[in-house]
Automatic annotation (TrEMBL):
The keyword rRNA-binding does not apply. It comes from Lachnospira eligens (strain ATCC 27750 / DSM 3376 / VPI C15-48 / C15-B4) (Eubacterium eligens). The lineage of its organism: Bacteria, Bacillati, Bacillota, Clostridia, Lachnospirales. Its EC number is 2.7.13.3. This is histidine kinase. One of its GO terms (molecular function) is phosphorelay sensor kinase activity. Keywords: Cell membrane, Kinase, Membrane, Phosphoprotein, Transferase, Transmembrane, Transmembrane helix, Two-component regulatory system. It catalyses: ATP + protein L-histidine = ADP + protein N-phospho-L-histidine. It is found in: Cell membrane.
Amino acid sequence: HNDERIPLKGYTEIREIAEDFNGIMDKANETDQSRAEFVSNVSHELKTPITSIKVLAESLNTQENVPIEVYQEFMQDIVTEIDRESKIIEDLLTLVRMDKTTATLNITSVNMNELLEMTLKRLKPIAQKKNIELLFESFRPVVAQIDEVKMTQVISNLVENAIKYNVDDGWVHVSLNADYQYFYIRVEDSGIGIPEESQNKIFERFYRVDKARSRETGGTGLGLAIVRNIILLHHGTIKVHSEENIGTTFTMRVPLNYVEVQ
Ligand code: ADP
C-alpha cells in the first residue's frame, strides 16, 4: 500500500514543499558572517557565568571573618552559575552533534501517545509550582518512526517553555493527531506571548525576547534551535502562532514514516 503515501501534488502540498525547501536552504546558506557571529555569541554566553563565579569567589576570598550565612549564600550562587554553564555546554554539544549529519538519528517505531503521556507526567511537578493546568488530548493512537530520545527532547523543550513563559494559574494544552502521512503535535499556552517582530527569530541560536526572564528561569536561548534541528532531521516542520498577553501555539508536523534522504 505504498502508493497511498505518495503526496497529491495539490496547491497546498506544493506550497508546503516549497516552504520546507526554503527552510533547508536557509540552513545551507549560513554565511561565514553568521558562523562568526555564532562563535562570538558562544564566547559571550560561556563567559557570563564564569565572570559571576569569579566575582563571587573573589569577594569571599578578600573578606575576613565572613559570616557563615553569607558564605553559604555566595556558595549557593556559585553552584547556580556552574549549573548554568553546564546547561549551556550540554545544549551546545547537542546542537553541534546534530549539525554534522542525519546519521545520528536512532529511528524506531514509537507509540506517540505513550511518549507524550510519559513526558507530560515528568513535567507535571514544574507546572504545579505555578498552578498551571497541563492537559493532554489525543485524537487517535499514533505510532511513528522517530528518534525517541530526540523527540522527547522536542516535547520537553516546548512544554517547559509553555510553562516558563506562562502566568500563574494558566494552562498548557498538548494535543496529538495524525492523518495517513503525518502526525501533528500542538503545544498551546495561556502565557505572555511573543511579539510579532520576534516570532521569526525565536528559533535562532541564543535569541531571547527577554534576556532577564530567560536567565531567571535557567534558559540558554538554545532550546528552540535544538527543537528546530531535531524536527528538520525528521523532515518535519514547526510553526508558531502567538499573541502578546494571550498565548502561544507551536504546531509541528512530522512524517509518520522516516525516509532517509541521500
Ligand atoms: P530559552 O532558553 O531562553 O527559553 P528558547 O530557545 O527555548 O530559549 O526560546 C527562545 C525565546 O523564545 C525565549 O527566550 C522566549 O523569549 C521565547 N519563547 C519560547 N517559547 C515561548 C512561549 N511558549 N511563550 C512565550 N515566549 C516563548
